[in-house]
Amino acid sequence: MNEPILKTENLCHVYSAGTPFELTAVKDVNIEIYKGEILGVIGHTGSGKSTLIQHLNALIKPTSGAVLLDGRDINASKDSVRQARSRVGLVFQYPEYQLFEETVYKDIAFGPKNMKLSEAEIDERVRISAQFVGVEEELLDRSPFELSGGQKRRVAIAGVIAMMPEVLVLDEPMAGLDPGGRESIMENILTYHKKTGAAIVIVTHSMEEAARHAGRMVVLNHGTVAMDGTPEEIFSRGEELRSMGLATPVMTDLSERLAALGVKLPRTVYTVEQMTRALLELERGCRDAS
Amino acid sequence: MLRDITLGQYFPGNTVVHRLDPRTKILLVVLYIAALFTANSWASYGVVVVFLAAAMAISKIKLRVMLKGMKPLIFVIVLTAGLNLFYTRGEVLAQWWIFTVTREGIRSAVFMAGRIILLVMGTFMLTYTTSPIMLTYGLELLLSPLKKLKVPVHELAMMMSMALRLIPTLIEETDKIMSAQKARGAQFDTGNLLEKARAMLPILIPLFLSSFRRADELATAMEARCYHGGEGRTRLRVLRFELRDFAALGLGLSVLAAVIVIKRFSL
Ligand SMILES: Nc1ncnc2c1ncn2[C@@H]1O[C@H](COP(=O)(O)OP(=O)(O)OP(=O)(O)O)[C@@H](O)[C@H]1O
Ligand SMILES: [Mg+2]
Q1: What ipTM describes this predicted complex?
Q2: Residues whose CB is under 5 A from ligand 2 (ion)?
Q3: Residue B244 CB partners (closer than 8 Å, separation 6+)
Q4: Which residues, given as ranges, of chain A have pLDDT below 50?
Q5: B130 Cα–ligand 1 center, Å
Q6: Domain residue spans in chain B?
Q7: pTM over 0.90
Q8: In 3D, which of A223, A19, A85, A48 has the Cα closest to residue B3?
Q9: Mind spelling out the 3-state secondary structure of A190-210?
Q10: DSSP character for B44?
Q11: Strand residues in B18-167 grouped as ranges (E)
C-alpha cells in the first residue's frame, strides 16, 4: 500500500486539563488517511469526532501524540502549521455561520487571499470552487446573508475548496438539510474528489451515506478507535455497532432479519442496490437448483 | 484557549457551602467584606483568613484554582503593594535613589495587597459555589424591597441571568468561529494595529449575527411560553432559610464582631 498522506500517532486530547471539568476527548488514536481515498468517520454523539478532525490541520494541539503530514509533524513550527492549514481543508459543522463578507465572491476568496495568491489565481479559484458546489455565477455578487440555508452551506464549503486542499475534511456537511440537499451536496463533494484526486474525510451520522461513499471507515467510541476497515467489515459487526449506540444501515438490518428467517444472502449488503443484486442472485440460484 | 477563563465561574458540587441559600451567601460576602475593611491588625486579618480557609476547605475549592483565577489581577495587586511600599512615611529602613522603604510602608503594603487578595477570593467563593441562576434569584429576592420604589427588580434580575447564561455560549461561539476562519488561513496575531483590527472582522460579523439571532430566538421562545414579566410569576424552587443558613449567618456576624472587638481594644 502507498504511504498515507496524513496520519495520527497515539493522539490524545484532554480538555480543560487540571480543572474539575477535565475531560479526555480523544485517547490513543492512530488513523491513516491515504491519497485519493474517502474515509468515513462515525461515532456516537460526544465520541470525539470533531475533536479528532480539528487536530488534522493543527487547529487543536495534541495533549500527547502527533499528527504527521507526509511524515512530518504539523505542529513542529509556525511554517508547518501554515502548510497544514492550506493543504488540509476543514469544513466545520454548520459552516454557514462563518460567512462574513459583503459578497459571496469575497467570502469564497478569503481563503485563497490568505494564501497570498495573485488576483488572477484567486479569481480562477473562486469561479472553479463555486462551480464545484453548484453556486451560479449570478450569486457571486449577492450578499451571502440573502441566500437560503442550503445555498449558504454551499458557499461556505466553496470557501474551503477554494484553497484546493489535498485532504478535504468535512464535519457532518449534510446536517440539517432535506434529502435533496443532502444528496446534491454529497455529489458536489464527490465531484471535487474525482476531479482533483483529493482525499476526503467525512464525519457523518448517516450510516447509509457512509456505507455508500466511503472506501474505508473509522468508528470512534468514547474517544478511541473501535473499528477501522471497509464498510463491509464494519457493518458485518452489527451487534457491536449497536452496543456503541450506532445503527447499521437499513439494508444491513434487513439482511440480518432475513438471515434469522433462514434466508442467507451471498454477502454483506448495506445499500439498496446491493440488496437488489443479492436478492436477484439468490433467486437465480434457486431457479438453477430447481 | 478562551474557554479556560475561570473568572466568575461556577464549580458544581454538593457541599454544605454549595447548598446554602444564595441569599445567605450574598449576605455572608457582605459581612466578610465589612470585616475585611474593618480589620487593621495581624490578629483581625487572621480571623478573616481562618474564616475564608474554613469555607474553602468545606466547599472543597482548591487554592490552586483560586490563584489561577486571580492571574488577571496580579498587576493591580503588585501596583498597590508597590505604591504603599514606597510612599508611606515612617521609620526608614532602606533607601535607594528615589525609593525609600519604611517599616510602616512594608506593613501597609502587605495589608493592602492582602486585602485585595482576600476580597477577590471571598467573592470567588460566592461565584464558585453558587450557580448563576441561584445567584440572580438570591439578588432578586434581596433587592425586592426596592420594587416599592418602582425599581424593575425582576426585569433586571432576568436580564442579568440571561447575560450570565449567554457568556459561556458566546465564548464557545467565538472559539468556533475563530477556528473556522483560522482553517481558512486567517491570522490574528500578525501585522500592525490596524491590520489586527481588520483581522477581527471575520470573527465579529458572524458573532454579531449569531448573537442577534440567538436573542431573537430566545425572545420568541419566552413569548411562546407566555412570559410576561415578573407579575404573578411563581418559582419551581422556592428558597427557604434552613437551620444551616442561620448558623452560617451567625458565624459571619461573629467574625465581624470579633474583628470589631479586636480593633476597638487594639488587641
Ligand atoms: N472546547 C471544548 N472544551 C471542553 N470540552 C469539549 C470541548 N469540545 C468538545 N468537548 C467535549 O469533548 C467530547 C467530545 O466532543 P466532540 O465535539 O469531539 O464530539 P463529537 O463526536 O463531534 O460529537 P457530535 O456527534 O455531537 O458532534 C464531548 O464530551 C464534549 O463535551
Ligand atoms: Mg461534532
Answers
A1: 0.84
A2: A 50
A3: B16, B19, B20
A4: none
A5: 25
A6: 1-130+239-267, 152-233
A7: no
A8: A19
A9: HHHHHHHCCEEEEECCCHHHH
A10: H
A11: 92-96, 99-102
